Amino acid sequence: MSSPGSALRAPALKGHTEPRVFTPPLTELTRETSWGFECVDFIETVLGWELLPWQRWLYIHALEKSEDRDGFRFQTLVILIARQNGKTQWLKGLGLWRLYMDGAKQVLISAQNLEFAETTLSEVVTDVKANPLLRREFLRFSQTNGKYKMRLDCGREWRAAVATRKGGRSLSVDLALLDELREHQNWQAWNAIVPTTTARPRSLVVAASNAGDATSVVLRSLRDGSIARIVSRETSETRTGLFEWSVPDDADPMDPEYWPMANPAQGYLFDSETLRGRAEAMYDNVPGFRTEHLCQWVDALEPGVIPAEHWSATTDRKSKRADGAMAWASVDVNFARSKGYIAVASRRADENLHIEVVAAERGTDWIVSWLTERAEKFQGVVVQSRGAPASGMIEELTEAGISVIELGGADLTRAYGHFYDLIVGHKVWHRPSPILDAAAESAKSRTIGDAWVIDRKGSPVDCSPLVACIQAVAGEMLWQPVSRSAYEESDLLVV
Predict the structure, then answer these.
(1) Judging by DSSP bridges, how do beta strands 149-152 and 138-142 pair with one another?
(2) For 355-407, what is each residue's pLDDT tens digit?
(3) Which CATH superfamily is domain 17-244 in?
């Protein structure tokens, strides 16, 4: 990963108009095949807004017409884009076009925070009242009893609702706008709001957000399903359109060259220097920068106990054990006991340590046989002596003739502190590894006295790959070579 400062100084790059990932249109998009052109005309001519290139592109592609040219091709739109790129403005433009030009009777905007939804609706009311043409059809803006509602003539309304199991129930909605869908950690709000659109012709559900984490179950499900169809090229009959501006997961998040892929408003609403400042300020919070500004998915938004900058700095694609160097192995099993891991630690040619997860499989039945076949390769196999899912395997490993190094007591917490110091001091190195990197990025700690260990249960991801590596490093720290007695080297003389 690049470091902050001068390396982050980017040229004046423009944001990408076209998203990196999107559901392809069924045909060439023209005024005959997309309602988006009519929507753009309304926004630019009536509202007088100056659309960004990506906003115009999205209206045209998202509002593709159905085959009968009467409705919309998509019933559900999933829009993923980094923060502060004009997403909410895009949603407001769509809602006003539906109400004023497309015959919609009811628009509903929902957010996990009701105040956010109400603020957006208040901005819509301000836009309507400031426009002489739209103001003619405006009746009132109700803010009583915590219920925000803009009323237009002919029974048209735009309401704000909180994203809960009660939000929007009993309504019949033409356009449901679910902003910040990443915050939906269960399906309750979705199940309450989306069915309100079922009985309305030309109804649309729009889910908009930046990327989420492991808890963003609704957004992840919608995205994963859409990507699966896009990859398999089976989108001709889909009613869900995905449009995602994001940086690829394998890209260096601190490389400004990639930032325009997630920030289509870069060069229009802000410049690369603004993002450079955000990157510098959030350098100790890489997961936050990735989700908020690069629209990349992470397992957890809060940084783990291992400093992200040091973990990244100790990544070496060519890292390996030096020829003839001693090696220690370690076994760990995750909290659910569903998967076991074997990691190794050994010295590199530069005398620093190399760590690696060398085996990972479901269950634990395979572990003893795997180690038995390779026992001569390791000085010992480290296993936490008590209180861990793998602790119960010590007897079985010992009976199989494997040299077990039990890790417990004061040595347990000392091992974690030792590993932390080595990482911060750039004395232990690793190759890129999805399972190990995810664990290091998100693993949480729990305290034991005045020290800490990795929390297998409380971490948002399976952290056992990291635990196994930490324990393997402890193997060298704890290993005691078998010394030969001086009497064994010479004859014993008894006087």
Answers:
(1) antiparallel
(2) 999 999 999 999 999 999 999 999 999 999 999 999 999 999 999 999 999 99
(3) P-loop containing nucleotide triphosphate hydrolases (3.40.50.300)
